[in-house]
Specification:
Blueprint: H1 5-18, H2 28-31, H3 35-42, E1 45-51, H4 64-77, E2 80-86, H5 90-107, E3 110-116, E4 119-122, E5 125-128
Parallel strand pairs: 1-2, 1-3
Antiparallel strand pairs: 4-5
Helix pairs in contact: 1-4
C-alpha cells in the first residue's frame, strides 16, 4: 500500500529540516577535494522550480505545486536564487526555461531545474508536460 500524502510530505519536510537533501550547504565544503570544486561552491546558484498540478485534460495532481513550493523554500535556504513557476502552460514553461538558460549563460553560475508534474517517455526521450498538454498521438 502506498504511503498517504501527509506521510510523504512529512518525509520531505524531515529531509529538508535535516539538510540531507541539499548537501552543498554546509557539508559540501568538507567534501570538496579540489580547487575547482571550491570555485564551483562559491559561484552563484540559480534554480528554476516548476510545479504543475492543474492539468486541463487529466485529473489534478494533488501535491505537485506543494512539492515545488517546499523545494523552492529549501533551495532558498541553501543559497539559491529561485524562480518558481506553478501550473504553467507550454508557452509559460518555455519562457521560464529560456529565461533560466539566459541567466545561467550571463552569470556563469550553477544551475538547477526541478520539475514536479506528469512526465512521459517515448523512444528513450523524456518529456515534461505543461498543464495545457493535449496528446493525441505518439
Amino acid at each position: 500500500m502506498a504511503p498517504s500524502f501527509p506521510v510523504r510530505r512529512g518525509v520531505l519536510k524531515a529531509g529538508l529540516a535535516a539538510g540531507s537533501l541539499f548537501l552543498p550547504a554546509p557539508f559540501a565544503l568538507v567534501w570538496a577535494q579540489s580547487d575547482g570544486a571550491m570555485r564551483l561552491m562559491r559561484l552563484p546558484k540559480v534554480a528554476l522550480v516548476v510545479g504543475n498540478g492543474a492539468f486541463r485534460h487529466v485529473p489534478k495532481l494533488r501535491n505537485a505545486v506543494n512539492d515545488a513550493r517546499a523545494i523552492s523554500a529549501a533551495l532558498r535556504e541553501s543559497g539559491f536564487e529561485v524562480t518558481t513557476v506553478t501550473d504553467a502552460t507550454r508557452e509559460e514553461t518555455l519562457a521560464a526555461v529560456q529565461q533560466h538558460l539566459r541567466a545561467l549563460e550571463a552569470r556563469k553560475c550553477v544551475g538547477l531545474v526541478y520539475f514536479a508534474t506528469h512526465g512521459l517517455q517515448l523512444a528513450w526521450r523524456n518529456y515534461l508536460l505543461p498543464i495545457d498538454a493535449a496528446i493525441s498521438r505518439p
